[in-house]
Amino acid sequence: MSDAPPIDPALRLGSRAHLPDDLLALLRKYPREVWPEHENLGELAKFWLARHDMFRELCAILAKSAEDLREGRIDPAEFRGFFAPRMRFFLHQLNGHHQIEDHAYFPAFMAAEASLTRGFEILENDHEIIHGDLVRMGEAGNALVESLSQDRDAQMRSAETMSGELTGFLTGLHRHLADEEDIIVPLILDRTEEKLGVK
Ligand SMILES: [Fe+2]
Ligand SMILES: [Fe+2]
Q1: Measuring CA to CA, how many Å separate 119 from each of 31, 75, 122, 123?
Q2: 101 phi and psi, to 5 degrees?
Q3: Which of 17, 47, 86, 186 is the most buried (most CB within 10 A)?
């Protein structure tokens, strides 16, 4: 949100190790162990958690494939066919996922629980940081695919850059997804999707 107060630098993605305790009161009431069997874990929450798992898995697969290219474990032509469509899919889907969260879910959740507003501002700020990362990764991905028609040294340099970008990104993505789940899932379990208006 453009009118949101600035985020404490220590709570920005890449700096924080976890969310502040005052934002995790509902998590203490509904710890992760109870989520899978809880009757209020509705279809939307299950779908949304599965999307998060898909993003974690796909990002790790992309990082591994760039590393395989760098280490000469995969043929460049084979790599191109594997990497390019998955990278495009990943960037597009993650971008769309954040837009839905920013414009539909977060406003509904903040309206339902004002004490979590600062948490959603932190998560929105994460989205801005991640968006910048996605732009940079898209450029690194294009440079890597272009380098496949150049010599081995150029390929290795581009693969090294891509692998570093993806590995660094994966760390931030894990933090963001886990924190987002720790705020949102307990709220859904406490109120139900129906009452939150996100069913
Ligand atoms: Fe998010
Ligand atoms: Fe998300």
Answers
A1: 17, 45, 5, 6
A2: -65, -50
A3: 186
